[in-house]
Amino acid sequence: MPWLSALLAISLVGAFVTFLTGRYARWAALGVSLATLVTVLAIMMEFQPSVNVNGPGYCQQGGFQFCELHTWFTYAAPGGGFSVDYLVGIDGISLPLILLSAIVTIAAVVYHWEEKKDPHGFFGLMLLTNAGCIGVFVSLDVLLFFVFWEIVLIPMFFLIGHWGGPRRHYAALKFFVYTHVASVTMFVALLAMVFLGDWHSFDFVNTFGRQSQDAYLNPIVQALLFGSLLFGFGVKLPMVPFHTWLPDAHVEAPTGGSVLLAGILLKLGGYGLLRLASPLLPTGRELLTPVMLFLAFASIVWGAYLSLAQRDLKRVVAYSSINHMGIVLLAIALWTQLGVMAAVLLMFAHGLVSALLFMVSGSMHHTFGTRDIPSVGGLTARTPVLSTMLMIGSLASLGLPALVSFPAEFSAFLAAWNGLGYWVLLPLMALVVTAAFYLWMLQRLAFGPPKGIPEKAHDLSFPEVMGMSLLVGLIVLYGILPFLIEQVIPVSALFSVACSAGPLHNGLIGGACTSFQW
Amino acid sequence: MIVPISAYLPEALALAGALLTFLMDAAGVRQRSVVGGFSVLFYSLALLSVLGDLSVVPFTLFATVPSSLLSAGAVGPIQFTPLGLLWQAILLSAALLVAFASLSEAEGDREVPIFYGLLALATLGMLLVTLSADLIFLLLSVEITGISTYVLVAYARKDPRALEASMKFYLIGALSTAISFFGASLIYGAYGSTALARLADIPPGGNGTQMALVGLGLLMVGLGFKVTAVPFHMWAVDVYDGAPDHVSAFLAAGSKKMGIFAMIVVFVAAEDVVYTASSAWALYVALGGLALVTMTVGNILALQQRTMKRMLAYSSISQAGYLLIGLAVASPAGLAGATIQAVAHVLMKGGAFLFVAAMATLGIGSRIEDYRGLGHSHPVTTASFAVLLLSLAGIPLTLGFVGKFYLFASAVEKPGLFVVLAIAGLLNSAASVFYYARVLRIMYMVEPPAEATSERRWTPAVAHLADPGNDPSAPPSSAPSAAVAVGESTPRAPAKEAARSLDPITPLSRSNLGMRLRDEVRTIGIARWTAIVLCAALTIILGIYPTPLIDLANHAANSFFSGLP
C-alpha cells in the first residue's frame, strides 16, 4: 500500500477540495485534517523503529521505510543524463515531524472554527501549507524536496497577506522575498552538490555512505556548499542573524498562520540541516561546526534577551522561538546520536508548545483587543481558562519537567555536555533568562489585580478551548511518556550519524554504514 | 529529394487565411466572428497538421510531412527538421491563442479584417523561418513577419500611442534588417555560400574565420533586436506598451520566439563545430554575455515599473535572457531547455498580456495599483494570471520551473565557465519574485478603496445602485465589491447593465461563486476567458507532467545536433 502517496494525496487534494467548498469549508477542513492524522497514525503503527540494511531496495538499505519510486521526468545530457524521481520514504527523523504537522494543523483548524473572513480560502491555504510541509518531510529526491519547499511559501504568503494584521502587506512580502532568496541559495548549493559530486541522480539516498570517500567533493567546496545550505536552512530555522523576518511575519500573521509558521515551517529548516546538509557534506559540516555552534549560542542568548525586552505577547513567543531553535541548531551541530535525537524531539516539542502559545496570544488579542503585556493584568480572576492555557504553555516552553519540552531540552544539553564540556554553561545561563521572561510575563499578565480588561470580556470560546486542549493534552502526554514519540528516533539518528562520519571525525570512514547492524 | 507540395500545408493555410481575409474585407464581410472564425479554423488545421507530423496527436489525417523528409537535409533553401516542426507548433500556438482570444474583442469596425489578415501574414513569415536552410531565405522570412507586425501595431489607426510605437518599431526594425543583411553579405564573402549548413564548416581561406566572425557578430546584433536582447531592447517596451493589447501578446509570444529560432539555426551550428575546434571563444562569450546582461537588466528595470504592461514587457526581456542561455550553452540539453522554455513563454506571456487586455476592456487602469482587489471580483482569471506570474518567477510545479531547471542544469553541466550563467539565472529568478509577488499582493490583499472606486469606475447611471440601502439582500460589507462588479461592466453597455441590475431576479449580491463566475465570463468574453484559463491550465499540467514535452524537445534537439557534420 503506497501509504506516503496516500498521505500526500489526501492532504493536497483535500486542500483544493476545501478551497471549493464555500460555506462548508470548515467541515471539509476538519475532515481532511482528521483523515491526514489517521493516515499518519496508521503509518506510525506500521513503522519499524529499526534499520534494515539488507532490505529489498536501496532506499530501504539507506535506512528508509515506506519507499516509493517513480520517474517524474528525465534530464538528457551527453554524459548519460539522469532522471528526476518521485522518491519518497520516511525514517525516524521525519516521522515525528510528520505527526507534528498533522496535529498542529488539526488544532489550528479547530481553533479557527468560527473564522468569518473567506473561510474557504483560509482553511484551504492552511491545509496546503500542511501538505507542502509533509511533502518536504517525505521527499528523498533533491528536486522533489525543493518543489515542496517552494509550495509551502505560497499559501503562507497569502495567509499573512490576506488575513493578517495592519502591516500584513509589508510582512507578507518580506517573508516571501526573504525566504525565497534563502531557498534559491539552497537550491544553487543542492544543484552544485549534485553536479560537482557526480551523483548522476537527484535522489540522495544513493549517496549515503559515499560521502566519506576521498573522491567526493574536496573540503573547501564542501565547506562552501555547507555554508550556503546553512544560510538557506538557517533563514527558515531561523538563526541569528537571519531571523529578522520572523517577528514581523508572526506579529502580522493571523493566529492560524502563526501556529503553522512556528509549529511546522520553522522545523523545515532544522529538518533540512538534519537530512541534507549534515549527512551529505560531512567534511563541510566538520569544518563549519564552530560557526554553527557560535550561531547557535548567539541565537539562544540573543533570542532570550530580546524576548525579555518585548511588550507584545506574540513578539515574546516569536523571539522565544528563535531561542529554542537555537538549541535545535546546537544539537544538530554536535552531530551525535543523542544530539540528533534531541534536535528532533525538541522540534516536536517546540511545535506543540509554540502553537499553543500563539493560540493564547491570538485569543488574548481577540478578548482584550490588545496583546500589550503591561496594559493587561489579572487574567486568572477574570478569564481563568485563558490564563490556565497561558500558564501551561509558558511552563512547557521554559522546560518544566513532565511537560514535553523537558526531555527534549534535557537530552540536548546532555549531548552538549558530552560534546562541549563546560561550554554548555553558556546556553544554560540563557535558559535562566528564558525562565525569567516567561515567569515575569506570567506575573504581569496572569496574576495581580485585574487591569485593562473590558467589562464584556468573555473567556475562551468552545472551539478555541478544543484546539488548545488537544495541544495541552499532547504536551502533557508526551511530557510524561516521552518514549511514545522518542522510540522511533534513535536507530535512524545513529544510522544518519554513523553513515556520514567524515574523515576528520573520530576515525570512522566510509563503509561504516554498509556494516551497520542494529 | 523532391518535397511534396502537401508538406507545405501549414504555410499554405496561413497564406490562404491571409488572402481570404483580405478578400472578405473587399467583399464587405467584416464581422469579427466570421473573419476571426476563419483564422481560428485555419490555424487549428495547421496546428493539427504539425502536431500530426510530430506524432504528438494520434490523429494523423493532416500529417503531411513524410518522415524521410525529416532526415533528408536541405532541399534548396528549405529544410524540414524535427526541431523546426516543433517550433512551428509553438509559433502556431501563439498565433492561434491570439486569434482565438481576439474573438472577444469589441465587435468590429473596418479594422477587423486588417488585424486578422496581418496576423496571418506574420504567422506565415514565422512558419517559413522554421523551414529555412539558407541565410537569405531566413532573413527574408523574418522580414515578412517584421513588416506585418509593424503595420499590426498601428492597425488601430486613431490611437497616437500605437502610431508612435509602430514608427519606433519600424525604424528600429529597418535598422536591424540592414545590419543583418550586412552580416549575411560578409558570411557570403567568407563562405561563398549562404547555406546555413555551411556555417558549421571552417571557412576556406586564411582570414575567412575573421570575416565570418564579424558577419556572425552583425547577425547577432540584427537578430538581437528581434529577440529584445539587451542592449538592443530599447524599442521593445515602448512598442509593447503602445501596441493594442492583443498585438502585444502576439509580439511577446510569437515574433520573439521566431527571433530565438533564427538565432538557434544561425549560431548553434557555428558554435558547436567551428569555434570549439579552433578554440575561438568569441561566440560563446558574446552569446553568454548577451544572456547574462539581458536577464539582469530586464529584471532590474522590471522592478521599477509602475504600469502592468511595461512590467510584463521588461520581464519578457529577462525571459529572453533565460532563453539565450540555451543558445550560449549550445548543447542538446541547452537546446531542449530553450525549446521547453519557449513553450512556457508562449503560454505565460500570451496569457498574461491577454489578461491585461481583458482588464483594459473592463475599464481597469494600466497601473499595477489599479489591479487591486481583482482576486475577489474576477476569481478565475485572476487566479490564472497568478499562476502565470508564478510560472514566470519559476516556482515549481509550473512549466516555467521545468524550462528554467533544464536551462540552468545544461549550463551547470557544460564544462567551462557556463556555471556562471546558471548562478546568474538563479539569482535573477530570486530577484524577479519580488515584482511578481508585488502584483499578487495587490490583486489579492489590497481591497479596492471605495472612494477611488467611485472616482474611477462608477458612472452616474448606476451609481445609486451601489448604495447598500437600495439592496436589502446585500450585507453592508459586501457593498463595495458589488459596486465594483457593476462598475466594471458599465463601460461596455451602461444602459443594459443598469437594466439587468434592476431586475429583481438577479440581485446585486455577488456572494454566490457561480454568479460571480458567470459575470466574469460574460464581461471578459468567453473566448478570451477560455484562452487565459487554458494558458494557466497548460502551464500547470505540463509543469506537473512534463515528460511528453521533454521527450519531444530532446528528440528535436538531438536530431538537430546529429544533423550537424
Question: Can you offer a commentary on this structure?
Answer:
- The complex is a heterodimer of chains A (518) and B (565).
- Chain A has 518 residues and is mostly helical.
- Chain A is 69% helix and 4% strand.
- Chain A has helices at 3-20, 25-46, 58-61, 94-111, 119-138, 142-163, 168-196, 219-236, 245-252, 255-280, 282-309, 313-334, 337-368, 379-382, 384-397, 405-420, 425-446, 462-480, 483-486, 489-499; strands spanning 65-75, 82-90.
- Chain B is globular.
- With 565 residues, chain B is an all-alpha fold.
- Classes of the chains: A mainly alpha (518), B mainly alpha (565).
Question: What is shown here, in short?
Answer:
The complex is a heterodimer of chains A (518) and B (565). Helices cover 69% and strands 4% of the residues of chain A. By secondary structure, chain A is mainly α.
Key terms for this structure?
heterodimer; A: 518 residues; mainly alpha; 20 helices; globular; B: 565 residues; 24 helices; 0% strand
Low-confidence stretches of chain B: 451-510
- Uncertain residue ranges of chain A: 502-512
Overall form of chain B: globular
Coarse structural class of chain A: mainly alpha
Largest interface: chains, residues each: A-B, 36 and 38 residues
Q: Termini of chain A, distance in Å?
A: 26 Å
Largest sheet of chain B: none
Oligomer: heterodimer
What does the largest sheet of chain A look like? 2 strands, antiparallel
Can you give the helix content of chain B as a percent range? over 70%
* Global structural class of chain B: mainly alpha
The count of strands of chain A amounts to 2
Distance between the termini of chain B: 19 Å
Count of alpha and pi helical runs of chain B: 24
The total of helices of chain A stands at 20
Radius of gyration of chain B: 24 Å
Give the helices and strands of chain A as they follow along the chain: HHHEEHHHHHHHHHHHHHHHHH
**Which whole number gives the mean pLDDT of chain B?**
83
In what order do the strands lie side by side in the largest sheet of chain A? 1-2
> What portion of residues of chain B belong to β-strands?
under 5%
Coarse shape of chain A: globular
